[in-house]
UniProtKB/TrEMBL annotation:
Bilayer-spanning residue ranges: 29-48
Name by which UniProt lists this protein: Unannotated protein
Protein's UniProt keywords contain Transmembrane helix: yes
Keyword set, alphabetical order: Membrane, Transmembrane, Transmembrane helix
């Protein structure tokens, strides 16, 4: 775009001096593209960590709801029912989360471990599985 001197000479000089100058465009792109990639990576890690923290809270709630239940099968059923309760975070969907309750006996104590795993995320991204474990002692 060339502005003629018939229009406004100050405006023409301003455009020629600042807006039509193309020096620095390649350098700006070489800096901005890696910064944008870094920014999106940081945002993804931040979202992953927040979701994992929320999953830990849900797993603790599942474990706390199964403290009074002595049977492992009944605790598994109670854990699946806990995920269907209203008021949990939006990502908690009983179809997308897999809950496993395991009981181990160590030195006379029964230790219950509640595993909560996001099935969809594990199928997509194998190196960052969304799985949390909560351990409680029953006795």
């Amino acid at each position: 775009m060339k502005v003629t001197s018939k229009q406004n000479p100050k405006f023409a000089r301003l455009i020629d001096k600042w807006f039509l100058k193309e020096s620095g465009n390649v350098e700006s792109a070489l800096v901005l593209i890696p910064l944008l990639i870094l920014f999106t990576g940081i945002i993804q890690l931040y979202c992953f960590q927040n979701t994992k923290s929320a999953m830990e809270l849900v797993a603790e709630g599942v474990a706390a709801s199964s403290i009074s239940i002595q049977n492992t099968v009944a605790a598994q059923f109670a854990a699946q029912e806990y995920l269907k309760r209203p008021g949990l975070p939006k990502f908690v969907n009983s179809k997308l989360l897999e809950v496993i309750v395991k009981d181990e006996q160590v030195a006379g104590f029964i230790i219950r471990k509640v595993y909560l795993r996001d099935v969809n995320h594990s199928n997509l991204i194998q190196f960052l599985p969304r799985q949390v474990v909560t351990t409680i002692v029953i006795n």
